[in-house]
Amino acid sequence: MSTRARAACAVAAAVDVRAAGSDQGAMLLGVVLLVIPVVVPASAAGRLGAARREQRPAALRPAGATPRQILAMTAVEATGGRCPVT
Question: Directed axis angle between helix 3-60 and helix 67-78, to 10°?
Fold first, then answer.
């Protein structure tokens, strides 16, 4: 193989490596752009749900619920609303 052919192969290999790197960068950018619209509303929903969970026990305390009753209601709610004792 001549020197000119070797140089052409080296340049072609370098171009392939750079193209693969730019493809990986574009893929990463695409994944980030697809994930952000899912993560932002999910985190907002989590914050809103946590605030709502704090409001319910706070409303039960002035109504006369004991801390033990509030704890029991919170435990039932955490299990999906099903009563563990039948």
Answer: 140
* Residue 11 token pair: 């340049």
pTM of the model: 0.39
Nearest to 57 by CA among 69, 48, 45: 69
Is residue 52 a contact partner of residue 69, using CB atoms and an 8 Å limit? no
Q: For 68, how many CA atoms within 13 A lie in the half-sphere containing its CB?
A: 0
Condensed to tens digits (0 to 9), the pLDDT of residues 10-23 reads: 555 555 545 555 68
In the chain, domain spans: 3-78
Any residues with CB less than 8 A from the CB of 74 and at least 6 apart, and which? 57
Alpha carbons 74 and 86: distance in angstroms, whole number: 17
Sign of the alpha-carbon dihedral angle for 80, 83, 85, 86: negative
User: DSSP class of residue 9?
Assistant: H
